[in-house]
Amino acid sequence: xxxxxxxxxxxxxxxxxxxxxxxxxxxxxxxxxxxxxxxxxxxxxxxxxxxxxxxxxxxxxxxxxxxxxxxxxxxxxxxxxxxxxxxxxxxxxxxxxxxxxxxxxxxxxxxxxxxxx
Amino acid sequence: xxxxxxxxxxxxxxxxxxxxxxxxxxxxxxxxxxxxxxxxxxxxxxxxxxxxxxxxxxxxxxxxxxxxxxxxxxxxxxxxxxxxxxxxxxxxxxxxxxxxxxxxxxxxxxx
Lengths: 117, 111
What we know:
The complex is a heterodimer. Chain A is mainly beta. Chain A contains no helices and eleven strands.
């Protein structure tokens, strides 16, 4: 099956700093990547959808200036949490989709746990 | 909003079959039923999907009612490692369409 990696797996930062999370599709080209976040004991919430070379489409209530998404290539998308605050502490999960061999399946990364002090 | 309804929790004895129900009464003709699971602190894992026919793979079976308004995921011989949150999702099989997660069912498998 297709493999999606995320880096780092966990990060702790001080309030006010920015954090970048990378999402890579290792063995396929991802035409679309998605970013989710998950608070404790809650379900995954879709934050944004990004297509390679295009601006990301953000879900209602997600601040695009705070959560910067870059999808510069077919194998890499990054999420930057700018000026992080404790309420941004969450589990961030990316997924990648392709319209090729895997028939529009969506493959998930292992997640990144962000803790803002 | 999620288009599916699932029981919040279920218990299953190890070695027995786990049958997880899902209601999707407003499903459209071009929407597929997907099942994913999430083991604690990991990314979701794909299990199976189907349109209208029953499907089986090495992990599970998916039974979809004839009117497509509900489905059941069957884990034939549950193990402790199957303890997870199981999500039933309906989605068109179209590139670029995100999976929208509901609350899912927490399955607890015990010995």
